[in-house]
Every structure is written in C-alpha cells, then in structure tokens.
Write a structure and sequence with these properties.
Length: 214
C-alpha cells in the first residue's frame, strides 16, 4: 500500500474480476527464478501486465494475514521499523468485487509507539490490481497497487508489490515476507526486477533498502 495516498475520484464500478484470475498459480511471461530453498521456479512479472487466466493473481485468501515488509523503496520506511501489513478478507457483497481490510503498522526508529494506517482494498475490474481507500480521516484518499510476484518456499511465503506514483508518494516497490524465506529470495527478486524497464522498476530497485526489524 503506498503512503500517503493521492486524492482521487472513487473508481468506477465495472465488470467484476474473472474468478480465474485468483488462484495459486504464478504469472506467465515473467522472469523465472529458482532460489536454493525453493523446489520450483517463481516468477516476477512487469507492472501494468494484462491479467488473464494464464497470469493470475494470488487469491485474497492467500494474501490474508500479517506480512513483514522486509525491503522497500518507500522513503517513509527509512525512518521506521517493524513494518507490517495485515490483509483481512471482508465478507463478500452481492455483485461487488473482493475487498480486503488493509492495516499498516509500524514504529519509528527511535520510539516505541506503534502507529497504524487503515484502509480498504477493492479488486480492480480487470483483476490486475487493488484500489486502496483510506478509513477515518484518510477516507478521501485512494491509491492503486498490484502484486508483481508471489510464492512459497521452505520456511514461508513471499510477495512483491508495486505501487503507482501518487500525489504524496513516488512509485515504489515493497517486498513482503511471512515466516523466513531467506536472502536467496530477496537476491532473486532484485535480479529479476533490475532488468525491467516498465514503470521505472529497474531504477527503483537501486533505491531499495532493507527495513529494520527487531
């Protein structure tokens, strides 16, 4: 989730995402990688890639739970630690796309107070991305993010997200981890993203730093 998000008009409601977009497969036409602790190659796709049944997104159920942000290009996280993002699938509504309750929590580098930012993610009509809208005083704000890669390995799960440029924050990349996926996955992600030109991803990777975690 990009922070702080831009102020935009509420997204138009269109056709619902094809259920085939959400399953446990990985993306097609990506960069293929095989870290040492994985038995099958995982894949990273460029941002803005079209969605189809052959290049699906992880399901809301797969995303559900708490993730640690281990690496990021977002300037805000350079002065933060213990950054987590928790996704909670919301009860489905008739004729509405899937939604997730999105809670970001973090602590400043030199303080113990835990801060939170809450919003709701709504699957885009084409099933490729998520549209975030803030809750509370951030209700007027919105932004868009998408999953570029995701997978499982010995010890945990990982995901890479790309968030588009907003009025308040630059375009960027986050690497998520649940469990312990190891440095091999991070190195593979860096290598794959470094060769991409779409969305300035290759340049962004040069700005990626490790987020402190106690």
């Amino acid at each position: 989730m990009p922070l702080v998000p831009p102020i935009r008009q509420r997204p138009k409601r269109g056709a619902l995402p094809n259920p085939d977009h959400f399953n446990r497969s990985h993306f097609s036409n990506p960069t293929h990688l095989l870290p040492a602790n994985m038995t099958k190659p995982f894949t990273i796709r460029p941002p803005f890639s079209p969605s189809s049944s052959t290049s699906p997104l992880p399901s809301p159920a797969w995303l559900a739970g708490t993730w640690h942000v281990t690496h990021s290009t977002l300037p805000m996280w350079k002065s933060a630690r213990n950054v987590t993002i928790t996704y909670e699938p919301l009860p489905p509504l008739a004729n509405q796309p899937p939604q997730l309750l999105d809670t970001v929590a973090y602590q400043p580098l030199h303080g113990d107070k835990r801060k939170t930012i809450r919003g709701v993610d709504t699957a885009s009509a084409d099933g490729r991305a998520w549209d975030w809208r803030g809750k509370g005083w951030l209700k007027i704000a919105s932004s868009r993010w998408e999953v570029l890669g995701w997978g499982e390995c010995e010890g945990g799960r990982w995901a890479v997200t790309y968030f588009q440029k907003s009025l308040f924050s630059p375009a960027g990349i986050d690497v998520y981890e649940r469990g312990e996926v190891g440095e091999g996955v991070v190195r593979g992600v860096r290598e794959a993203l470094g060769g991409m030109e779409e969305g300035g991803v290759g340049r962004l990777v040069e700005e990626m730093v490790e987020v402190r975690r106690d």
